[in-house]
Amino acid sequence: MPQTVTRADFDQVMVPNYAPADYIPVRGAGSRLWDQAGREYVDLAGGIAVNALGHAHPGLVAALTEQAGKVWHVSNSLTNEPALRLARKLVDATFAERVFFCNSGAEANEAAFKLARKFAIDTGGADKYEIIATTNSFHGRTFFTVTVGGQPKYSDGFGPRPTGIRHIPYNDLDALKAAISDKTAAVIIEPVQGEGGVLPADAAYLRGVRALCDQHKALLVLDEVQTGMGRSGSLFAYMEYGVTPDILTSAKSLGGGFPIGAMLTTADIASHFGVGTHGSTYGGNPLACAVAEAVLDVVNTPETLAGIRAKHARIVARLQALASETGVFATVRGMGLLIGAELAEPFKGKAKDFMTAAAREGVMVLQAGPDVVRFAPSLIIPDADIDEGLNRFERAVRAVIGQ
């Protein structure tokens, strides 16, 4: 019989690197969750942009169950059918010609950075290894990726960092012009900075980054861990901009909640990862790939992608109306179903307060730094759940600001 556990057990048995909420979800269906006490929540957080099709989607349950009855794991001295099917569909749907599977966004970015340096050194010499990233970016929690991410709070305190990494302001093409050189191996950009505040790149900026990379024979790496798999309203955000990367990373929504990451690139660049140069024990796991294939089959349809755009408009209109009535938000921004509501000056620094109050009202939202409330719900969330979730969120906002 399962042992009874509570939130208090976390503090007794878990490493204290997280500070989870005071409730534990135990069941989900669509865009609703229930905790141990049976309390219901509307989920506008999506597991931080992960639960692309909500909770317990029947198609994902069926794919996982079917694969679980066949084969769970094989070593990477073998391949497997779900991995090959998923890779083929990703190649057919994108610029990419080759795919590498792993287990998370951090691992996908780690692979991207290693491949970019390997390619650059192989083709441009030993001095061509510098990586340019942007301040307030986020690319994962391995030591390499957290160093490339431009947020010192995540990389301080761990001793000497990997070298050859430079940081410049986001959306500042002049800063990149001053920093890039023939020693640059790669420039890494999030089309929308997620953890940095839900900040979309300007179209002219991203086109300029592409041109500068071409000029200096540097690879353009787009981190689409948070924006990919329909989150932006296109399958990947680069399609919204019309700017093609050399390497793209994906995770989060790719597995709809099952851990998987992917690095996509061209055949020429991929050839520099010869046998034995990189690997992942669980990468390409049949269970993960079967689920991700089912996610892709649902997301990459005109109906789903059009629905994401319509839901974006519905949420933004409601948040803007709330901002007009209360003055709580300075701006509402984002793409598709990755939306950030930036707090107005009197409420700066209180994003966590709004998130906590929202949970008390029965709705789950996120923060993106101290000044932005973030929304990343299921890509197929029903309009009724959007409306009910935002009704609850409005009550939370008014409770915090005293209106």
CATH-derived topology of the largest domain: Aspartate Aminotransferase, domain 2
- Helix/strand-derived class? alpha/beta
Named at the architecture level, the CATH assignment of the largest domain is 3-Layer(aba) Sandwich
Instruction: Give the radius of gyration.
Output: 21 Å
Task: Please give the domain count.
Answer: 2
Number of helical segments?
A: 15
Share of β-strand residues: 15-25%
Notable traits:
Aspartate Aminotransferase, domain 1; 403 residues; 17 strands; single chain; 4-stranded mixed beta sheet; 7-stranded mixed beta sheet; globular
Structure description:
The chain has 403 residues and is α/β, with parallel strands linked by helices. It folds into 2 domains: 152 residues, Alpha-Beta Complex (Aspartate Aminotransferase, domain 1), CATH 3.90.1150.10; 229 residues, Aspartate Aminotransferase, domain 2. The chain is 40% helix and 18% strand. This is Acetylornithine aminotransferase.
Please summarize what this structure is.
The chain has 403 residues and is an alpha/beta fold. The chain has 15 helices and 17 strands. The chain has helices spanning 7-13, 46-49, 58-68, 81-93, 105-124, 143-148, 152-155, 173-179, 203-215, 237-241, 267-270, 286-299, 302-326, 351-360, 383-401, and strands at 25-29, 32-35, 40-43, 98-102, 130-134, 165-168, 184-189, 192-193, 199-200, 219-223, 247-250, 261-265, 329-335, 338-343, 363-364, 366-367, 372-375.
